[in-house]
Amino acid sequence: AAAVEELVSGVRQAADFAEQFRSYSESEKQWKARMEFILRHLPDYRDPPDGGGRLDQLLSLSMVWANHLFLGC
């Protein structure tokens, strides 16, 4: 039971972290899909100690992906 609680807590923290990147113009459906994209790829895009800006790249890619998926462009 403690492992499940820890897992739920981690997922909640990740979702809270991602929430700061939501655009005011995104619908709930679009945001949920983009948030899943961000959370799925976040481990591969952690910013290195030298400040390489990998998180910015992930956020940009998530917008491109969402635009392609929902707007067809």
TrEMBL record:
Residues 18-73 form the XRN2-binding (XTBD) domain. Signal peptide: none annotated. InterPro entries: XTBD. It comes from the Eukaryota. Belongs to the CARF family. This is CDKN2AIP N-terminal-like protein. It comes from Carlito syrichta. The lineage of its organism: Eukaryota, Metazoa, Chordata, Craniata, Vertebrata.
